[in-house]
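Quick illustration for those who missed Monday's session on complexes.
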Amino acid sequence: MNFMAMNYKNVMPCAVAAMLGNHAADAAETREQRPNVILIYADDLGYGDLECYGAKNVSTPNVNRLAGDGIRFTNAHAAAATSTPSRYGMLTGEYAWRKEGTDVAAGNAGMIIRPEQFTMADAFKSRGYSTAAFGKWHLGLGDKSGEQDWNAPLPAALADLGFDYSYIMAATADRVPCVFIENGMVANYDADAPIEVSYVRNFEGEPTGKDNPELLYNMLPSHGHDQSIVNGISRIGYMKGGGKALWKDENIADSITEHALAYMREHSSEPFFMYFATNDVHVPRFPHERFRGKNAMGVRGDAIVQFDWSVGRILDALDSLGIADNTLVILSSDNGPVVDDGYDDRAKELLNGHSPTGGLRGGKYSAFEGGTRVPMIVRWPGHVDKGMESDVLVSQIDWLSSLAGLIGARVPRGAAPDSYDRLGNMLGTDSSPRPWVLEQAADKTLSLRTPEWKYIEPSQGPKIVPWGTEIETGYLSEPQLYGASDSGELENVAARYPDTVKRMQEIVRAVRGNDERLLRQLGARP
Ligand code: NG6
Ligand code: CA
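Prediction with NG6 bound:
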């Protein structure tokens, strides 16, 4: 199959010609600019969960608008199939499997990216940008796991990673502490309700979902999630206190979005970088009442609509501030979708024919494509053509170096070792695919995808994600190879193409060993 010829569709031929013809000039021009950059990063939003990616039963007009004004990628990948390693890779340009302690983090994990590491935010700061992070963090806070004093400024937080301003959730909505952290301190701190957090034992006299199910007035767990109760929902981990600082689940999207809008208003006259990481559509799905009960798919559908609403608010703000043309917006997701992720929210029963992965096999956690192939949309009016679709192979691991390239930031030697400047792919000026992308499943099994193939290395884990999600892991004790046209990864052809398997294994070995020379020898340097 000729992928090069297929890379750009839905575009008038003259637009394609103009775009390709001006490639060099465009690149030179864009590299001298400092547009605002907004990363809209959804949580657990699947490849098939947006209307413009074929979602059933849900309309996402604001994301449609973004896609209509930019490029919609159909072969974009997160670096990992769960949040912490995916975000770690995206923000540092280093694969998470290279570093210990990057699995799904507890809410009291110490800060996983260390202050001395170079991050995407550092790149923007180095070029005079104002930088900010909103929403889901899930990369630890403070110096040491389990030793934070949540009642005082945390000794290590996002300011140490290049973010001037941050308003974040420490981990996930299903993990304590259930409070927002603003610039390294609990937001709306309530001195009458000091906060204590433990992932080891409960605090005396505090109810839990396990012992006090009668207190779960908002939602019941289906798996795990039976420890501390906040807002009638039990979570992972134990916490005490919080008082007025505790979030209300139905207001999380509003809080995150309003803080982001305030930041945009304040910084509209200087270049800014904003990492806008939504809680939607992660569990517990508890959208605001104004989105509730409207969707055939129940709360999971409502949460997708709420996500779309947040996107709309950001796009509207860009318009009303008059900065839309000078803002590069990237929208994507941290990993693939899951339906039952541990709360009894009827998401599975109510799918009504919708496929969150868009027909891909597996889902969140898994080595199959459903784990890591995600939506990705890029808009930059005047620089990226409108209404494009691209099947060029891209990975979030390259965002750091690509965006650094865009704004002329220098990446220090040794930093972001896995991130390559593929800006041309992102902006649609270069249709040559990355030779491969590497994906990490929940148990760190690696998969390698090239434009023609998908290889999954042998591993020993269970066939199905063990905690009730019903998701196929993709783990098998022998090598798996699927042709790109077999997008459902149904026919393992490894035995038929031993040379291809061997080559893919060599590439994985070269990447694992950080062996640039071998990569070059293999003709596989991105
Ligand atoms: C799992 C949780 C799941 C989710 C996930 C992390 C259970 C049974 N499951 O352990 O609900 O929180 O971790 O999701 O507790 S992620 O998107 O942040 O990686
Ligand atoms: Ca996630």
